Amino acid sequence: MTTATVEAGAAGHGAEPRGKRTEDGQATYLVAIAEALWEEMERDDRVYLLGEDIGVYGGAFKVTEGFLDRFGPDRVIDTPIAEETIVGMAVGSAMEGFRPVAEFQYADFMSSGFDEITTVLARYHYRSGVPLPVVLRGPSGGGVRASSFHSINPEPWFAHAGGIKVICPAFPADAKGLLKSAIRDDNPVMFLEHKWIYRRIKEPVPDDPDALEPISVARVRREGRDVSVITYGAMVHKALEAAEELERAGISAEVVDLRTVYPLDEETVLRSIEKTSRALVVSESYRFVGIGAEVAATIAEKAFEHLDAPVARLSPPNLPVPFSPTLEDAFLPQVADIRTAIERLSAW
Amino acid sequence: MTSVQMPQLGETIVEGTIIRWLKREGDEVARDEPLFEISTDKVDTEVPSPVTGRLVRILVPEGQTVPVGTQLAEIEAADAQGDAAPAQATPAPSQAPAQATPAPSQAPAQAPSRSAPSRREPSPATATAAASAPRAPEAPPARGPRSRVLSPVVRRLAAEHGLDLSTVEGTGSGGRITRADVEAAIEARAAAGVPAARPGPAPAPAPTEGAGTGTEVRPLSHIRKAIAKHMLASVNETARAWTLVEVNVEHLVRLRERTKEAFRERYGVKLTYLPFVVRATVDALRAHPFVNARLDGDNVVLHDYVNMGIAVSYDAGLIVPVIKGVDGMNTVGIARAIADLASRARAHELRPDEVQGATFTITNPGPYGSLVSLPIINQPNTGILSLDAIQKRPVVVDDDAIAVRHMVYVSMSWDHRLIDGEIATRFLARVKENLETWDFAEDLGLDR
To answer: What is the DSSP string of A120-182?
Structure first.
């Protein structure tokens, strides 16, 4: 009998996720995501994973390493390299009462399943009355020198589809709590994990398996008086850094982390504008018809009488993410860009 | 050091209000470069700097009204050896100060000032603050170029708290008033215990179904207040009587229809009925000099010229530009003068002396559809003639037949203190006769 002596994993079984917390209990974003998956699979037998190389290999970013040993091949399914099929399988099994969580190696490849996602997944509940509790997760975003096929921020495409909730967490605890909420939600949810954050950001995360974070609720990450920076994903970290630097210069910037980009938490955004009267909207997704455009329009429409300056946006142009590090840095909003934009806005 | 004084903008103007300083203390200013804007009873205008140099000190802050001749600022001339004003040569304080004169036409800078609510008298709070805490030189009272850029939140807060924004100094870019500035001003006022200048509307009684409940309280513009005062004074002081005649303008209508295209082509201005009426009226005024006169205490002042005031409505209210020496003009000259003055009035480009000195006034509500009007006399004139709408009416013509003719009511309010009904009526009859019998065609100088 060896099971008695094996060190307990996340739920007392022999297998455990590869990624572990640090000794003081902090988890990276990636570990937090793995914990959420693990706990939800422990909690609910209907939850299963499917995706390319998620089983034996443990996933392109090793999020699901150890899952096959614990949950077996019926609940951790390696699929062919065919994203449309992955979505189709998830949709079909959800119709039958399962709660699939599909992984994409990169969020860029979600567009291979575009029709299945936008035409079927997003609309099926409306057409048939049958809810589809499907989670599609994948690493999105740039800043890691991965060029134009592995750096996309696809959230505007899928937020635009309607019928799919789109979550873009920036912190490990949020990632864990929101992924768990997504899995328990009866609606289709796209869960975009910013790959720049995966192993860079760590923090204490809740141990309670029922600790959830609400979807569609933004969070003020930093209180400020002068300018509101509304953003999400990796840009939250850049904005916080810029705000920190500006504090020393006497400019007080508030940072609002949207966390969910669709449906948008307008109330938190508008409350912040009422306080500061100045808005800078930062997104890593494209500027034109982007999440930032939507947030800016909402502010202009619903907080007009509170504005003391025009709503400003900072987002990359609608162009491929460059491969050259120099160009990628110029393409993506940087801390200095955000700082300058805040300064300009506060001096308007 | 050159002293800048409140200029005399017209012989009857005794005081002026500084609307805003276009330069701050310490700024370099070129000779003839606009230095400040002032408002008199009728006109706002920019005043250029008398010399080139540095604006050392502003002595009268924005919003304050001071008598003509009051020292407003000091300019240190750039080049004391220069050929500029003699005032620069000797810096003796007794030196006659350079007299600022109004810029002839500064429309772009002037126009925005009309719409901005910044020409009101300073509120008691500000006046007190200004008196008790004179501004330090490093905090000049001048407004930046963006002081009129009011963001939505600034407008809303000012409205909610009844704050006069002309009393708030902007610390934003280009002197823009920011939300923080407004909040500081509201706090300062609260600390001083001064109530809001304009409290919100009292609760409305229960509205009847479908009735609106909104009430908005706005301060009167400078111009509006001046008009109100002027009109009320006229009603109170004159013994106003009123006489009406009906004029057959059939041949005038036909002439205008026949010639208006050619007139416009030849002279570049539209031919309206007003120039004909002005021309006919001028002749009647020459024939009845007391209608062209004014009372001055126990004297009557007669004029051997006619300066015709023409009432022009524009966005800020009503203004009466004056065609000086109209008795020397033919119909073409009058038409041109009217077009010029009216367009410049609407563009806020009139000089103060162009709205003064009328000996008689004509108002022309006809285009708006008025059939008969009873105007208030534009003092110190004795009469004001009203040209109302031209209409086709059935009239009895010479051979006792009824015919359709273009008719118009021409009336005059007149001051019974100076003239009586006989003069007034004979004057109007003369206007009528001129309009009905004169052949204006020759006067238009067009080939027939």
So the answer is: IITTHHHHHS-----EEEEEE--SSS--TTS----HHHHHHHSS-EEE---SHHHHHHHHHHH
Q: Are strands A135-140 and A99-103 parallel, antiparallel or unpaired?
A: parallel
Calculate what percentage of chain B has a pLDDT beyond 90. Answer: 41
Q: Which CATH class is domain B2-104?
A: mainly beta
CATH 3.30.559.10 positions along chain B are 223-444
Contacts of B181 in chain A (CB under 8 A): none
Phi, psi angle pair for B279, to nearest 5°: -60, -45
Q: Judge if the upstream peptide bond of residue B380 is cis by omega within 30 degrees of 0.
A: yes
Per-chain mean pLDDT for chain B: 81
DSSP state of B32: T
pLDDT greater at residue A294 or residue B217: A294
The per-residue pLDDT for range B147-187, each reduced to its tens digit, is 888 999 999 888 888 888 888 888 888 889 999 999 999 88
A69, amino acid identity: D
Cα–Cα distance measured from residue B337 to residue B348, given in angstroms and rounded to the nearest whole number: 16
The whole model's pTM is what?
Answer: 0.53
Give Cα separations from B170 to A208, B20, B35 (angstroms): 53, 13, 19
Which of B186, B167, B61 minimizes the C-alpha distance to B123?
B167
Identify the CATH class of B223-444: alpha beta
Q: Nearest by CB to B173, which of A304, A305, A347?
A: A347
| Residue A159 structural domain | 26-204
Interface touch A309/B151, C-beta < 8 Å: yes
Taking the Cβ of residue B430 and every Cβ of chain A, the question of whether any pair is shorter than 8 Å is answered with no
